[in-house]
Write a structure and sequence with these properties.
The protein is an alpha/beta fold. The protein has seven helices and nine strands.
């Protein structure tokens, strides 16, 4: 009989959060990361889009050039990647970052779009998936316009994508309506606390 004891390092868990742009995902997520009882670690995506006011490189995203993105893609550095708003803005999840977090026992959080989520689920079918949304298309549009950092053209594109994403919410294990930030944070922390 093999008497060698294996070191009991419990590997982590993957958590995928999606939801239409303007649903308040970033704000809710910031609180969840600070308040949840699980050892959460946000996977910082790579993007070619420009930083918005207040965003910090390596905290919100790794902001890179298109050449750099293409080089990383060709090196197979991405677990999944996508051109999200069909106008040349690329986003990708770093394979190494996710693997290192999971190996260290972290609950690695991906904040990615629906197609990216479906792609990741193929290799990580036991991920906890949460869809966060503002309740209705009208509320979504109101929030997107309130943010006022986008041009009308960009708002229209984001709205179209958002409506398509809303139609996919039943593909997720959990649906959370972001009526108030506090409530949404509590709901998500509860889901994570009861997750295996
Ligand atoms: P934003 O430009 O508003 O930060 O993000 C736009 C969309 O891109 C959001 O739906 C966000 O979830 C998604 N996104 C951010 N990072 C990634 C990523 O690495 N992969 C994919 N597929 N989508 C991402």
């Amino acid at each position: 009989m093999d008497t060698v004891k294996l070191k009991s390092v419990k590997s982590g868990k993957l958590v995928i959060i999606s939801g239409p742009s303007g649903a308040g995902k970033s704000t809710v997520l910031k609180h969840v990361l600070a308040e949840c009882s699980r050892p959460l670690e946000l996977s910082v995506s790579v993007t070619t889009r420009h930083p918005r006011p207040g965003e910090t490189d390596r905290v919100d995203y790794r902001f890179v050039s298109k050449d750099d993105f293409a080089r990383r893609r060709d090196n197979d550095e991405f677990l999944e990647w996508k051109e999200v708003f069909k106008r040349g803005d690329y986003y990708g999840t770093l394979r190494n970052e996710v693997a290192a977090g999971l190996a260290a026992g972290k609950w690695v959080v991906l904040e990615i779009d629906v197609e990216g989520a479906m792609m990741v689920l193929e290799s990580h079918p036991d991920a906890i998936t949460i869809f966060l949304h503002p309740g209705s298309d009208e509320e979504l549009e109101r929030r997107l316009r309130d943010r006022a950092t986008e041009t009308e053209d960009s708002i229209q594109r984001r709205l179209e994508v958002a409506r398509r994403e809303m139609a996919c919410r039943n593909k997720y294990n959990h649906e959370v309506v972001n009526n108030t930030v506090d409530q949404a944070v509590e709901d998500i922390c509860h889901i994570l606390a009861s997750g295996e």
